[in-house]
Amino acid sequence: MGKIMTVLGEIDSKNLGNTSMHEHILVDTSFYRDQYIGLMPSISEDKLIVKGENMYYLEKGYFGISVDSTRLNDVNLAIEEVGHFKNSGGSAILEVSPGGIRGNIEDMKRVAQNTGVHIIVSSGFYADGSWPPECINMSIEELQAYIEREIYEGIDGTNIKPGNIKIACNSLSATEERSLRAGARAAKKTGLSLTVHTGLNMNIGHTLQMANIVVNEEGVDPKKVIMSHIDGFFTNSLSIKDYILNYDTATQLLLPEVREILNTGVSVSFDTFGSLWNTEVVGSYRITDYDRIRGLLPLIQEGYSNQIVLGSDLFLKISYRKYGGNGYTRVLDFVEPMLRELNVSEKDIQNMTINNPAKLLAY
């Protein structure tokens, strides 16, 4: 099938194994604090430290302004948490933190060495407010060149190279659209996979819009594109009031819209399994893993398993097993067994967890 670039060098794609296709291992998303803090009732800083008695606050939405929770920078703790993934049968992780939010790349290598997990890191750009300062005013061509330098020469002066390109858009601003097009052009040129994040101020319509930009306008092979967080945007409403007053309408799954995205030929990622936190403090709820499977199942039954990948999008310290979260193991420990109980075939499960990741990441 081809080769896949990991932090320890190339591997044969047939050796990739069971893969989580959307995770963060060492990452800093504390830039979100400035965007969130004005939206929330005030809270004392001592309640934002990750410890048992503060989970009451953090899991209801205050995690977004907790610098302690939004910085994953303890390499020994990362080794422990990724070790749980390995012990549950995991083989590989796609780490989707690009420059600007990505942790120390040499430490990422240490995690791989100490756990035996294949770690594939990403070049690219996250959303507005997180870019490396030298990139903010770059043109599409300059952003593309920046990505390609990491791919061909290595990250941060090392010989560690990315095996994926990640572009995150939270509003599809003009700046974010530049990065989307730059990432698409770099993917087309290098043959690497392209992961696209639909974010905070967007909806499933934006996911389709970005898929069309990447595939139809920039000419990327749709078989190399992953539209992430599809399970975060496929209900009509995430308002708690709507959930209570208009339950049937609010919780209706937007599967026709997901099918439209799939019919462009791209893959979609059900990648927020295992999140125990919510955003109750700002009046919204988070769908459950049961709802995620409720949406995933009919798509599998309709024959789309060769365009779906899975993950947990762990980016918060409060999601670690150490602090009572599901860590990186929710797909392995719950989702796969539940799909088997629902009579999903082993072929379909292997497509989503082994075969599709290998095809997408191989070059």
Describe the structure.
By secondary structure, the chain is of the alpha/beta class. It has one domain (3-361): Metal-dependent hydrolases (TIM Barrel), CATH 3.20.20.140. 39% of the residues lie in helices and 14% in strands. It is built from 14 helices and 13 strands. It has helices spanning 32-36, 55-58, 67-70, 75-87, 105-115, 140-153, 174-190, 204-217, 240-245, 247-250, 255-262, 289-301, 330-341, 346-361, and strands at 3-6, 9-12, 19-23, 27-28, 71-72, 92-95, 118-120, 122-125, 164-169, 193-198, 225-228, 267-270, 308-310. Strands 8-9-10-11-12-13 form a six-stranded parallel beta sheet. Strands 3-6-7 form a three-stranded parallel beta sheet. A two-stranded antiparallel sheet has the order 1-2. Strand 12, helix 12 and strand 13 (308-310) form a beta-alpha-beta unit.
The tally of beta strands, per DSSP, is: 13
Using only CA atoms, what is the Rg? 19 Å
User: What fold name stands as the CATH topology?
Assistant: TIM Barrel
Number of helices: 14
Structure classification: alpha/beta
Helix amount? 25-40%
Kindly report the average pLDDT value. 97
What is this entry, summarized?
The protein is of the alpha/beta class. The protein is 39% helix and 14% strand. The model has no long low-confidence stretch (mean pLDDT 97).
Question: Tags for this entry?
Answer:
363 residues, alpha/beta, TIM Barrel, 6-stranded parallel sheet, 3-stranded parallel sheet, 14 helices, 39% helix
Task: Provide the fold topology.
Layout: E1 3-6, E2 9-12, E3 19-23, E4 27-28, H1 32-36, H2 55-58, H3 67-70, E5 71-72, H4 75-87, E6 92-95, H5 105-115, E7 118-120, E8 122-125, H6 140-153, E9 164-169, H7 174-190, E10 193-198, H8 204-217, E11 225-228, H9 240-245, H10 247-250, H11 255-262, E12 267-270, H12 289-301, E13 308-310, H13 330-341, H14 346-361
Parallel strand pairs: 3-6, 6-7, 8-9, 9-10, 10-11, 11-12, 12-13
Antiparallel strand pairs: 1-2, 4-5
Helix pairs in contact: 4-5, 6-7, 7-8, 8-11
